Amino acid sequence: MAIPTDVNRTFDTSLVDFNVNASFSTTESDPSDYGAVNHATTTKTPDVQPTSLFEEQNQEMPAQSQTSVSPVDIGSAPKPPTSVQHLPTQDTYDQWASIYDTDGNMLQSIDDAELETLLPDFLAPALSSSKSSSTKSAQDTPTLSLLDLGCGTGRNTAKLLSYAWPANLLVEVMGLDFSRGMLDVARTKLRPLMHNSKDKSKEEQNISLRLECTDCFPTISHPSASPLPSVPDGIGLRPVDAVISTLVLEHIPLLPFFATLAALLVPNGLALVTNMHAQMGAVSQAGFVNARGVKVRGSSFAHTVEETVQAAGECGFEVVEVRERAMSREDVECGRVGSRGGKWVGVKVWFGVVVRKVG
Ligand SMILES: C[S@@+](CC[C@H](N)C(=O)[O-])C[C@H]1O[C@@H](n2cnc3c(N)ncnc32)[C@H](O)[C@@H]1O
């Protein structure tokens, strides 16, 4: 087992084949390392069954004993106990933001690879329906409104801005996220895209961008609240033509997620949702290792594709497309993901669904 060369990077937790009975403590081992299926309740001791889906190869996390996180023998440099800190998801991303784009997160790489084809396939019908829809600007120019829900550092907002939009279309792109840290990175990253001096600026191309910091799923903490996230200017959000939400669903219960999505879309509006696959989510969750070597995690759920599709239906969506993606050996060999991706070969790590709000 290799010794980690740096600690400030994403971990994707592996499991070891133990039956765990550990508490969610900030200093003890974390049950989800061993396969907790629903990580959302950080105060609960999960009933975790051993699984042998994967081999323990995680460079950051040496195999751990059933009752402790004692160092294992890694030659002459024993690794100190790994501590885990559970934080509110918002705080987790605030702390993760500065390295989120650069810490070698293989799920982002898989998401990028899949979106190369899925995103254009998704945008084409949204585009053609916007041309024929009644959504017109004051000058009667067709307008397409797009929302990146939980946009984070703008990884995929950038793709929306860079898409080859037709010249006669007004494109309004909005990114929402509740992590100021993530949004600060997004602003820094997206500003040059909006004002590229070589080309016409995006404004000249009729593309606008708005980023707002807000809790996108207010009904989770206040079930009687409006499912529409509030934005500070008082104008509020009006339903958009299409929503993308990538790698966010992991943190949100299914019904509040799709109820919010329904509230955010015009009738027949389309949504593209990607997420960690439950096969991976059963033994892993989003998080990173901070500069002090502490694994930092928010709240996560391992939603299955079937549960996701069912919840979408219950909230008034029809399913247009479902994609599942296993890690392939080629992903590792061609460098699409780092060597840490090796342990996931053959495992489904990602899924994407395209849904349409029934009009
Ligand atoms: C794994 S990141 C994904 C970011 C981006 N969509 C991407 O694909 O790179 C999850 C994002 O969801 C955001 N998020 C989670 N729960 C949220 C909520 N209730 N309201 C707004 N944003 C939320 C987090 O702040 C974080 O930026």
Automatic annotation (TrEMBL):
- Report the record's Gene Ontology biological process terms: methylation
Specify the superkingdom: Eukaryota
**GO terms for molecular function, please?**
polyprenyldihydroxybenzoate methyltransferase activity
Signal peptide per UniProt: none
InterPro entries hit by this protein: Methyltransf_12 (IPR013217), SAM-dependent_MTases_sf (IPR029063)
Query: Keywords for this entry?
Result: Methyltransferase, Transferase
Polar residues biased stretches:
39-70
Q: Locate the Methyltransferase type domain: which residues?
A: 147-270
Q: Where is this region: Disordered?
A: 25-88
Q: What's one Pfam family here? A: Methyltransf_12
PANTHER family on file: METHYLTRANSFERASE (PTHR43464), PUTATIVE-RELATED (PTHR43464:SF52)
Q: What is this protein called?
A: S-adenosyl-L-methionine-dependent methyltransferase
What organism does this protein naturally occur in? Cucurbitaria berberidis CBS 394.84
